[in-house]
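Supplementary Methods, section 5.1.

A reviewer requested that the exact input to the structure prediction be made available. We therefore reproduce it here, unchanged from the version used in the analyses.
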Amino acid sequence: MATRGEVIDLVRSLGDRVNGHPEHVREVVPQLVALLDEHHDPAVIVAIVDALGYAWDEGASLHVLPLADHPDAAVRLAVAQAMPGGVESDAATVAVIDTLIRLSRDDNDAVRDWATFGIGSQFSLDTSEVREALLDRTTDRSQDVRDEALVGLAHRRDRRALPLVRQQLSEDNPGPLVFEAAEYLAHPDLLDSLAGWLVDRPDDNAILGACRACDPTQQLARTERHAALLAAVEQLMTEQERPGRPALYCDRSSTDVLLTVDASSRVWFVDSLLERAENDVNRAAQLIAVDIDRQ
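The structure derived from this sequence is encoded token-by-token as follows.
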């Protein structure tokens, strides 16, 4: 019989094999699942769940889902941390989100924190159940949980987050997630409070990003730059008789504006592209042409 330490060492070595190595997932995950069926020691279970999480595989994530009701809080925490990894299908996403919602009401603060992070930031699923679960956690006893819930609501542009962000900004030491939530909400009513924090922390990128998003003048200038870039790319494609048309879009759960050309598989982050081009839209258009040619 192997000792607990020996089993954990074996599990960790298996976890190392799949961590960043998808080519080993098909071989290693069944071994980990078999070990999960054999062992009932919470410390061993935690190690196995962690290793399955490293696989970043939907099947591995679904194997840990039944352990969400385990009596040991360390196991439930490992499950909350591992479950979101590699989940892509709609059915698996719903199953994992439902389990995370349950864990977001756990007695253990760390379990609730990770579960709320999973619901709010690791998935973009936007349903009334998700929003209500996040709203419930904005009154949690743990500040970390409250902040995760707040930014999750803001990711979904839920305006019920606005007064909560405003309140947080009026307090002594709001965390970085509060400024992230402000950036997602992009509401001018938050600008004065954000500007006050910028006086004390002028180099804080989170505050700077929130100020840019909430300032109507800066947002208008950003929109105009993006429109000018789109026009420059369209003109270049026409002049060089290139196939395809460019388009701009933004995912609801992101603040990034993306540019695509339908004849190319490439996607460009517009603000990063303009930074590369030193805000010269014609130069940025040329960079896109070069990137396409290198495909």
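The longest helix spans residues 216-239. These observations are discussed further in the main text.
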